[in-house]
Design brief:
Layout (H helix, E strand, L loop, with lengths): L2 H13 L2 E6 L5 H16 L3 E6 L17 E2 L4 H10 L2 E5 L11 H6 L3 E6 L10 E4 L6 H11 L8 H14 L10 H12 L4 H9 L4 H12 L2 E3 L4 E6 L1 H6 L11 H5 L6 E8 L4 E8 L5 H8 L3 E2 L3 E6 L3 H12 L3 H5 L1
Parallel strand pairs: 1-2, 1-4, 2-3, 4-5, 5-6, 8-9
Antiparallel strand pairs: 7-8, 9-10, 10-12, 11-12
């Protein structure tokens, strides 16, 4: 983000009263963590701030400080629309195309507010007045920390802000395993611990709080694990019936795809989850090394993301989606074998 933008944003923040923060649809730890971290920071500066999520988010994030104040657009559309249309500034976090805000995108397109985008995904759209986009960053939470740093306001970071930002960095880096974790990331993490983030507690709240139903669903997922040793690929399927039998809740499958990637010799892993209400198969893709799941998903499954972590979807049945996946996979045999 260039210095001129920082000067303009600083000026706008000095007068703006009504601010709305929007994460993407199906918000994850980075989206919620960055939104709440920025929420606490701006509230501390005296602004009237609302976080409006397009829909619900996983239970394992519902302990973060301030999460009880997040508005769910699906549940209170009229109130949320009013806040969006009356906002002076709208921050969009962890996404860079307005369609990723789900049903909110129409209202966002009508808003006359100043838009500020903070995001680390490739190919940002040009809807924002100020764009802080960097695909080399580990997470949007790291970018929010560095945004606060650019505003020369690191001293304003409270334990609540530190907790939210630490959570998003931790979840989006796979507990600091992914290639996007740099020495700068670790320096930011160290600063957040110094500011009051309890790293042990955060890890326990995110990763060590499986419900009995979620643990049983994991067992089903592992039973459904299939491995293509030749192409160094593993995938998991979960049908709607299997989800229902195990009382599936939003977020219960978070991280399941990583079990496939953890297998010896595997560099590409996927999970296919049937969502009959939406009429689609939702996909999460992960990889190691240079194999780009972002390119794979964009080319074949209407998705995208990062080189080593992406999402996608299919309008086919679960069975036909797997057939398509295996058929497409053969086109990448040289990359996967190499």
């Amino acid at each position: 983000m260039i210095e001129q933008s920082i000067l303009e944003i600083t000026s706008e923040l000095s007068t703006a009263n009504n601010i709305v923060i929007v994460p993407h649809k199906g918000p994850d730890g980075d989206a919620i963590g960055s939104s709440l971290g920025l929420y606490h920071f701006l509230k501390g500066k005296g602004h009237f701030v609302n976080v409006i999520a397009p829909n619900d988010y996983p239970d394992f994030l519902k302990w973060l400080p301030g999460q009880e104040n997040i508005l769910n657009f699906e549940k209170c559309q009229e109130d949320c629309k009013k806040l969006i249309l009356e906002a002076d500034i709208i921050f969009t976090l962890d996404f860079n195309v307005l369609s990723r805000a789900g049903d909110m995108h129409t209202t966002l397109e009508e808003a006359e507010a100043t838009f500020i985008m903070i995001d680390h995904h490739p190919e940002p759209a040009d809807y924002a007045d100020h764009i802080y986009s960097d695909t080399t960053m580990s997470s949007t939470c790291q970018m929010v920390y560095q945004f606060i740093e650019k505003l020369r306001a690191v001293k304003s970071i409270t334990p609540e802000i530190a907790t939210c930002l630490y959570t998003g960095i931790m979840t989006d880096t796979g507990s600091f395993r992914f290639r996007s974790t740099t020495s700068t990331t670790h320096r930011v993490i160290a600063a957040l611990i110094d500011k009051g983030a309890d790293n042990t507690l955060i890890h326990q709240m995110i990763y060590d709080t499986y419900s009995a139903n979620r643990m049983q669903l994991l067992g089903v997922a592992l039973q459904n694990l299939r491995v293509n040793k030749e192409l160094r690929t593993a995938y998991i399927t979960l049908s709607q019936e299997e989800l229902d039998t195990n009382n599936f809740k939003k977020g219960d499958t978070e991280g399941f795809v990583n079990y496939g990637l953890a297998l010896e010799g595997i560099i590409f892993a996927a999970i296919f989850i049937e969502h009959k209400a939406d009429g689609i198969i939702k996909m999460s893709l992960r990889s190691k090394g240079s194999f780009s799941v972002n390119d794979f998903s964009r080319a074949h499954f209407e998705g995208g993301g990062h080189v080593n972590a992406a999402g996608g979807k299919s309008d086919l049945s679960l069975e036909d989606t797997v057939i398509k996946f295996n058929s497409v996979l053969n086109k990448y045999s040289e990359q996967l074998k190499g």
